[in-house]
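hey m, so remember when u said the tokens were messed up on ur end? i reran from scratch. heres the input so u can diff it against urs
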Amino acid sequence: MEKIASFTVDHEALEPGLYVSRRDRCGDVCVTTFDLRMTAPNREPAMDTAAVHALEHLGATFLRNHPEWGERVVYFGPMGCRTGFYLAVFGEWDASDLVPVVTDLFSWAAGYEGDVPGANAHDCGNYLDINLPMARWEAQRYLDRALVGIDEAHLAYPKTSALNGL
């Protein structure tokens, strides 16, 4: 089998940022998938599963209720490696187009108080594995080190990646 596109990204050079992971087309429909990379892969610890789970609930709720982006969201969920999230949206977009909504999402998550949406036995298959305080910490860390003042170098995969220039 051929190596899938996401495995061609140079994870040794990848830093926290916001990247276009791929663009898929079916007829006239385009779906752009973004890599919301929150930690430096293989150089920093992966995020705690319970924090990732809380961020998944918060992110999906925020994005699907967003007045501008809600109807465009196809998927928001964690990477298996726990170094970030994927966000898939209808349309052909650049990473810079998503900076405002992703910044709003993580600002909201960093300050979120109350019950995590869907964190109960009826709505979630593993509702006890949620850590809101750690999720808030991870959200603030991503804002501080990647989103606020993001530059072009953190909006495009490293030059050594096969996906650069997507």
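this time it looks ok to me. The first helix runs from residue 49 to 64. if urs says something different then somethings off w ur setup not the seq
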